[in-house]
Amino acid sequence: APPPVHSGSGSASMRRSSKLRGDKSKRFRRKFLNSKSWLRCSALQLMVAFFGCALIGLACFLGFLIVEFSSSSSSSSSSIASPSSSSSPRTALPKPPSGSRPTVTAKLPQSMGVQRAKGKKEFKVNRKAWPKQSVTLYEKPGCRGKSYTVDNLNIEQKCARCFDVCGKKYPTGEELQGHFGSVKASGDRTIVSLWAVCKGTWTYPADDGFLTSVTTEDGCHDINMNWPPVHLQFHLKDTMDAVRQSQESSRDNPYAVNPITDPKEVLEKISYWKLPKGVTPAQSPSNRYVTFLKDCGGFNNIRMGFEYAVLMAWVTGRTLVLPPPEGWYLIDYGPIKRGGSYSKGVTDFKEFFDIEHLKNGLPVITAAEFYEREKDRLGLGSNFGGNALETKNVAWKQMLFQKFGGQPWSPLQRVVLDPSVSVYLASENKREDLLKNKSPVEFDAKLLSQDVIHFPSCHGPNGDQGIYRYLGQIANSVLFADKKREIQFKAFWRDHIHYPRVVFEAAAKMIAKMGLFAYSAVHIRRNDLQYKEVFQNAQKTVQNIEALLYPGEPLYLATDETNDGFFDAIREKHKVYQWKDVVNEAQGVPYSDKVINILEQTICAGGRRFFGTQKSTFTSYIFRMRGYIGAPDTNQYWHNIRYTGLEDVDRFAQPKITGHNYMAEDRGMWEDLR
């Protein structure tokens, strides 16, 4: 029989079931919370978390790539635009020529809205940080023909706010490089510097290749195709009010407020050589000589050839033999533009250099004295006695080369290493930049054993001039292993190589009228210079230099321009002095019309600032004289370059001294003597 059913049996069953479940839960917790089970659970959780984070990171990365691709595409299409097309085709960038990739990297801009993320090469431009600016390249001069416009937010591989012409094309397919004749800057406070190397594509030194700048105020700027720009860099210009305020504050210059106007005091200050007081005896001649011939060019080429011969005599400790008097180009013959009241004939070196001061530091004799001393011992023949050297100049030149040969040591191709090639190359004073692309030579034992070392300027074998022409930067013609000897050379140069005192006396009178350093000077070459690409009108000149002048500052113009009205654009803004004023002021000083050129060089050296003509050796020597005199500003400026008044832009216009640049001066010639 079935067991009896007791009342309340259902609730007891439920209690037993609940107890059973509780026991199972306790057993599960005990089992799960032991060490091995806990580790297995933690590992599972970590794996799930890792894969989850990886998926999230991958999604974020893909999203970032999509955003970057779309923004860079829209930026490149909006940063370069042409009036006729919103985009322009691009071709592969051409390879730079051999040797055109220096190792120093230009500093890239990191301010004014330009940022580069840490560890990344890409640049980003904050468009709100810069005003709207642009520059347009035109196919033809006068801003005519096809055009190509670039805004200031353009980005190249190695710079921001810049543009490389290299490899770019007009929308119609023609190459930009070499095929645009003018540029025009537009927008608020726009300055664009122009460069001769593609700095946005390849690596160049920061100061390499600067040409000039253009601003909004300039309007259309025609390109000099002898130096075509291939790189454009945008700069933010201060307001014109700030520039003018800076100019006005410069009026506190003590030379302008209280100018030196006493001719005697001016003469004392511009006579820069430092000789011992009293009579210094001349150096006694030796029986070993350096002979040379006058250069075949104008005066400043003659000066450089003379300086080279003097340096060779100084380095070897020999007696310098001056050439016999003869006609000098543009002094005694040729297209002489000024002077000419003197009798055309011959010129002697003592008319242009203080030979007596030179003799205080180096033995010097004339060609006639050399002939009389050595005609028998050296077998110089019997045809050059008396005044024969003045009439038999050609025969004298031929005899010297036939008897003593000549050193083919053009400073543009050779560099003399002192005391020898091996010693210099092992010295701490070695300058790799001045050795580049030059063949080193030395005065070896065989050469020093010769009685005469000859430098036949312009008269090499078969009429060869190139390697037998000694035009170069005197500071880099000989490189010294011993720094002390280099300083001795520079001191000798300052103290013994200078124009005659009468030139400084006449110049001092004109300088005193304007006030020493109370005016600025400009050399404008217009006629005999072979580099016609540097010629420009007077309006362009005053536009280029105005930012570095005081308002209304007096100017001295040294020029061969014969049309007096040519400079009316400059006279509208500045008081202008020229050679005719010197004639009036220097009355009573017995100078010759032959020395007009070196007299004007000296006047230019007395200015607060000086602006020369590019590629002019007349200009380059003024820079050196200003360094010796101690002018307030010894930077080297040219009226062919547009100056902005902003140091961060204008500093790039300072010349880069190399072993081949002889139309600028090495500042070490005067700075090493301080």
Which characteristics define this entry?
single chain, 674 residues, disordered N terminus
Tell me the major beta sheet: 5 strands, antiparallel
User: Uncertain segments of ≥5 residues (pLDDT<50)?
Assistant: 1-10, 68-120
- Kindly report the spatial arrangement of strands forming the biggest sheet: 1-5-4-7-10
**Helix fraction?**
25-40%
What does the average pLDDT come to?
A: 83
Strand content: 5-15%
Tally of separate helices: 22
Number of beta-strand segments: 23
Give the overall shape, derived from the CA principal axes: globular
| End-to-end CA span | 134 Å
Task: Output the structural class.
Answer: alpha/beta
Q: Specify Rg, calculated over alpha carbons.
A: 38 Å
Describe what this molecule looks like in 3D.
The protein is 34% helix and 14% strand. It is built from 22 helices and 23 strands. It has a five-stranded antiparallel sheet with strand order 1-5-4-7-10. The chain has a five-stranded parallel sheet with strand order 21-20-19-22-23. The chain has a four-stranded antiparallel sheet with strand order 6-11-8-9, with no helix packed on it. Helix 15 (501-514) packs across helix 19 (596-605) and helix 19 (596-605) packs across helix 20.
Secondary structure blueprint with pairings:
Elements: H1 9-32, H2 35-79, E1 80-81, E2 114-116, E3 123-125, E4 133-140, E5 144-151, E6 162-164, E7 182-187, E8 190-195, E9 210-215, E10 220-222, E11 231-236, H3 240-249, H4 254-257, H5 263-270, E12 289-292, H6 299-316, E13 319-322, H7 355-359, E14 364-366, H8 367-374, H9 388-391, H10 393-404, E15 414-418, H11 421-425, H12 432-435, E16 439-441, H13 445-448, E17 452-455, E18 478-480, H14 483-496, H15 501-514, E19 520-524, H16 538-545, E20 555-559, H17 568-571, E21 576-577, H18 579-585, H19 596-605, E22 610-612, H20 617-629, E23 637-638, H21 647-650, H22 668-671
Parallel strand pairs: 12-13, 12-17, 13-14, 15-16, 15-18, 19-20, 19-22, 20-21, 22-23
Antiparallel strand pairs: 1-5, 2-3, 4-5, 4-7, 6-11, 7-10, 8-9, 8-11
